[in-house]
Amino acid sequence: MKKENISLKQLAKTLNLSVSTVSRALNDHPDISEATKQKVKTLATKLNYTPNLFAKGFRQKKTNIIGVVVPNITHYFTSTILKGILEEATLKGYKVIISESNNDAEKQIEMLNTMLQFNVDGILMSISKVTRKVDRILKVIDRVPVILFDKASNKIPCSQVVINEEEAAYNAIEHLINIGKTRIAIIKENEYSYNSERRFSGYLRALKEHNIEVDEKIIISVDDISLRQGKRMANLLLSLKTRPDAIFAITDSAAIGVIQTLKKFNIKIPKDIAVIGFSNSLSSTIIEPMLTTIDQPGEKIGATAVKYLIEDIENPNELTNKTIEIKGNLIIRDSTFKAY
Amino acid sequence: MKKENISLKQLAKTLNLSVSTVSRALNDHPDISEATKQKVKTLATKLNYTPNLFAKGFRQKKTNIIGVVVPNITHYFTSTILKGILEEATLKGYKVIISESNNDAEKQIEMLNTMLQFNVDGILMSISKVTRKVDRILKVIDRVPVILFDKASNKIPCSQVVINEEEAAYNAIEHLINIGKTRIAIIKENEYSYNSERRFSGYLRALKEHNIEVDEKIIISVDDISLRQGKRMANLLLSLKTRPDAIFAITDSAAIGVIQTLKKFNIKIPKDIAVIGFSNSLSSTIIEPMLTTIDQPGEKIGATAVKYLIEDIENPNELTNKTIEIKGNLIIRDSTFKAY
DNA sequence: CTGAAAGCGCTTACAG
DNA sequence: CTGAAAGCGCTTACAG
């Protein structure tokens, strides 16, 4: 019912050549005469021959497939990274298999193992939040090149492609200081999270370098940095004896929740309280006032990760464990602009 | 350097059995004795044996890989569909290869052909806007089961999973009529687009069934239904002698652009002009007033598409060309609520 | 109940 | 310059 693919064998038969010769002709092997090459190629295009990449991969122990594991594909930032991965991979002749871990450590390992079973040439992964034990991930690294992106871990010895989280956060806080803010709150993550920790470091460094005292009361930690939590934490901050005059939420959604709450209490943004988020999500330009935030170049991260992975794949004997930082850019909008 | 996978051969050798027996034992073939099965399985788990799915697929002419082609992975709706696809596919033991067509007809075909070269068992695709000639797509359908989702086409004979666009739009317009609106504008797509046409049909039917005259002046067509275009078209509608009292934009982003413009002119929403979008994007709850819109259950669409595709894959002789409609739900929010 | 052999579609060292 | 043969890791009809 379904049409069959034509194989080298069939080409060989109709041309009265051996399969080997046909294979070599198609691959432009120097041994083959121009005449034969022409003949073979003509027939191949005429019959619309396409090599069975599966068989080829099987033979060469190279599948040209890259496996990708991400916590959640629907996060806008993740989807832009994936776009970059797809583009760069396609350009280099690789296909991409994508899996979601849903922030579930068990599922993450399961996905990784299936990838291995499908003989992917390499794996790109953004580790899930709940990754405590990395021993099973280390086993995977033994088998195939792996590159981590976005969420890094110093427990996993492989190259990593990340945003300059610390510096970007530093710049954000410095911007707040430059517009006259001195009592800057941060809403960060509760549990250990690479991104959150790095951003928090940047926050601390900025305060320190500008001689602003750190006040634990305005350092807020929550489990999930969601819009809902942003609202709740804004309420909490407003209830303090001395309110902050700026709030840095380490995600846009929390920042948007903060803005919504401030507006409810008729607090002037940015005059009374300025707000900064992180990630330049689509909604950051829909909220009023528009949110100052840090743009994370997702496509660039994805493309870079692919480049390094392919390098590792093609030179398996000189694996290096670099950490590549991609710059995130502060985008100044109305939630911090013209503060006074 | 990298560890090798262990093969059936190695298991066979250490157990002094033939490869055939080991293979059968692992697959619970009835011919094999319980004792042997036990022995084999014990060693397999001990050595952490995982079958090479690639070799298996190669042999069985079945790869358990599904190919997916979408115009743009970063569209939120698309990413929710992909989530549904990934979940359902994983559940059924399939892997998913994803490609972007970027709304480029050439690239779309190219992707489809690479999928074929990788011997995918079936293809799920959302056709790009600019798909005029479908003849090359028809060739693909000859080779492997294909299911279309979101954007359908009656020129392509295969099953299709879509939103009940017409009915959903009808419901949206009827809702506007119910809150007292009688002069309802629509912002739709210029070029032929399945979604746009169906939504427009629903619009027309609702007006007709409620005896509201159609006025061409408030039927606006644009090339891309973006936020920017929403703003421009809102300006245009406001410049009319008799303004509409409601605007149905066939995408959320256009609707959000409309709202922003209406606010700029201090027009009361929904009292003066009500606004409805389509797709329940994340931003639709960030804009003020929150946007009434139609929720498209992306994950359900994805999961359904996978189910039908696997059915086609496993019963290649009884392919049916059904069109499955998934219901979109009208979500009433402030942009139309309490209109008077 | 178990094994030897063929074959899936390719590539490649070896031979001529 | 071309071909015969082996082999990638599996499954499965055939034989015993």
Automatic annotation (TrEMBL), chains A, B:
InterPro entries attached to this UniProt entry: Cro/C1-type_HTH (IPR001387), HTH_LacI (IPR000843), LacI/GalR-like_sensor (IPR046335), Lambda_DNA-bd_dom_sf (IPR010982), Peripla_BP_I (IPR028082)
Key words, A-Z: DNA-binding, Transcription, Transcription regulation
A Pfam family reported for this protein in Swiss-Prot or TrEMBL: LacI
GO molecular function, one term: transcription cis-regulatory region binding
Domain HTH lacI-type, residue spans: 6-60
SMART domains reported for this sequence: HTH_LACI (SM00354)
Domain HTH cro/C1-type: 2-54
Entry protein name: LacI family transcriptional regulator
Organism: Seonamhaeicola algicola
